[in-house]
Amino acid sequence: MSHPNTDAQTTPTFLDEAALQELTALLDETHPQVALAAFQSVDDSDAAVFLVMCSHLNSEPTGKALAAYAGKLFAQLPLNKQVSIAEKVTTTETVDSELAMQIWNKQITKIKEAIQKTTFLGEGTANLAKLLSYMDVTAQNELLKALGEKQPGVVDNVSERLFTFEDLGNLEDEAIKTILQVLDHPTLALALHNAPTAIHDRFFENMSASQAEAIEAETTRLTFEQTQIADTARHSVVSLVRNFAAKGLLKIG
Predict the structure, then answer these.
(1) pLDDT tens for residues 220-230?
(2) What is the pLDDT of residues 122-145, one digit of tens each?
(3) Are 33 and 71 in contact (CB under 8 A)?
(4) Angle of helix 62-76 relative to helix 32-40, nearest 10 degrees?
(5) pLDDT, position 216
(6) CA 27 → CA 36, 71, 115, distances in Å?
(7) Is the pTM of this model over 0.90?
(8) Average pLDDT of the residues in 174-178
């Protein structure tokens, strides 16, 4: 028995480029949790039709973008709803065109209504970092340590926002020299690998000739595998600076 060619799917006629771009722009501006909330109450049969339509759009690059949005949306749904929608997808191969258009428009309306009912406060970790910026480093570290026992991933994100590797370029000479006294050569060489020129120069202009020679030698020995974890070394440098600042050994702001 022959089976229909599923690759021969075509974009529904009512979904012209303008309609696709409208939904793409809407999703670009919508927080993922808002879109997810708008989708939670959708009938599973309608959800299956909407997701399948998104995954079979022929428009480039809009179609690919919407397919990716649909896939991410489906992945975030509760497992029981995923299973129910998956069952509908496997049994829904055709749909009335007018009904498909109604489902599409209804979902867009739901997303817009969810946006109107939502007050956006911004990214949580960015908001916390801004609040902490008014505290001294010691108080920041104490709070982050306590928070880290519950949400270590969040703490890393907030710490990086409070003081970044790029901020090293703003440190005073004495602060740079303090770091150089304790930072081992392999970590520094890796951290400075492909680092912004301003930061690279700030360190080298505060090194002795022998230190600079040692770092350059260490840099030439870096393997490809080591260079792939340069961000880890930079994170170590930033953590060291924050710890020293908390102890009053240098100033970062």
Answers:
(1) 998 888 888 89
(2) 788 889 989 998 888 888 888 988
(3) no
(4) 70
(5) 92
(6) 11, 13, 11
(7) no
(8) 93
Three-class SS of the chain: CCCCCHHHCCCCCCCCHHHHHHHHHHHHCCCHHHHHHHHHCCCHHHHHHHHHHHHCCCCCCHHHHHHHHHHHHHHHCCHHHHHHHHHHHHHCCCCCHHHHHHHHHHHHHHHHHHHHCCCCCCCHHHHHHHHHCCCCHHHHHHHHHHHHCCCHHHHHHHHHHHCCHHHHHHCCHHHHHHHHHHCCHHHHHHHCCCCCHHHHHHHHCCCCHHHHHHHHHHHHCCCHHHHCCHHHHHHHHHHHHHHHHHCCCCCCC
Residue with tokens 């909407």: 50
Q: Pick left, alpha or beta for residue 5 (phi over 0 → left; psi -120 to 50 → alpha; otherwise beta).
A: beta
Largest CA distance in the chain: 79
Domains in the chain, start-ordered, CATH in brackets?
Answer: 9-116 (1.10.220), 163-246 (1.10.220.30)
Length of the chain: 253
76: pLDDT strictly greater than 50 = yes
